[in-house]
Amino acid sequence: PGTVGGAVRGNAGARYAFCGGEVKDCLTSTSVWRDGEELKLTNAACAFGYRDSVFKHNRDVILKMEIALAAGDKAESLAKTQKIILERGHKHAREPSAGSFFKNVFLSEWKRDSAELPPRFLEYKKIAAGWLIEQALCKGYAVGGAKISESHANFIINAGKATQADVLAVRD
Questions:
Q1: Which helix (H) or strand (E) holds 83?
Q2: Are 146 and 120 contacting, i.e. CB atoms less than 8 angstroms apart?
Q3: What pLDDT shows up at residue 100?
Q4: With 0-12 CB in 10 A as exposed, 13-18 as middle and 19+ as buried, what is 23?
Q5: Are 32 and 38 in contact (CB under 8 A)?
Q6: Do residues 94 and 151 make contact, with C-beta atoms less than 8 angstroms apart?
Q7: pTM for the complete prediction?
Q8: Looking at the predicted structure, is the pLDDT value of residue 29 above 90?
Q9: What are the tens digits of pLDDT across the range 33-83?
Q10: Which of 17-31, 34-48, 126-140 has the lowest mean pLDDT?
Q11: d(CA 26, CA 23)
C-alpha cells in the first residue's frame, strides 16, 4: 500500500483521481518480476476490477508502471490538486494508517431499501464503506495497536505499535 506497486495491485482510485478514477484508466503497461524474469504486461493482462487485479491472485512482483495522461492546463491542474489536498486533509485520518482500507459497496449489491441511504450514494452508485462502518458503531474499534479511526471510519490507524496481525484482526 502507498507505493506504485500497491496502486497497480489494488487498482487504486478515488473520485478525484489523477487519471480519471482508477489506475486502470491510465495504465498502459506494467513490468513485473515473475519466475526469475522481467515481463511487460498490457493493461488488459492486468485483469483490473474494482480494487482488484490479477496481482492479488498471483505472486508477481510489480516493478514499474507506464501511464498515459491527457494534456491539460498547468495552472488549472495545480488549482484542482490543491483543492483535493485541502478537502482530503479535512476529512481523512491524520494519524499513521494502513490507508483507506475497506471497499465501497456497489448500489446494485445493496439488499436493503435505498431510501435509507444518503443521496450522494445514489448519485455515485456506491455506498461508502466508512459510512457503513459508522452505522455499525465500529468507529474506535481496536485490536492491539490498530484501531478504526474516529475521524474517518474507512481508515485503520496505528494507535500505538500496531502489528500486521492487529491490522488484520481489526479488518476481519
A1: helix 74-91
A2: no
A3: 79
A4: buried
A5: yes
A6: yes
A7: 0.76
A8: yes
A9: 999 999 999 999 999 999 999 999 999 999 999 999 888 899 998 998 888
A10: 17-31
A11: 6
Which of 5-9, 77-81, 148-152 comes out lowest in average pLDDT?
77-81
Q: In what order do the strands lie in the sheet with 142-143?
A: 97-100, 155-158, 146-148, 142-143
Q: Are the C-beta atoms of 157 and 150 separated by less than 8 Å? A: no
Distance CA 43, CA 55 (A): 12
Answer for the pair 126, 105: CB distance below 8 angstroms, yes or no. Answer: yes
Please name the amino acid found at residue 46. C
Amino acid in the structure at residue 10: G
Percent of the chain with pLDDT over 70: 95
Give φ, ψ of 67 to 5 degrees.
Answer: -125, 155
**Residue recorded with cell 510489480:** 62
Q: From the CB of residue 161, how many other CB atoms can be counted at a distance below 10 Å?
A: 9
Cell of 48: 483490473
Residue whose grid cell is 489536498 = 85
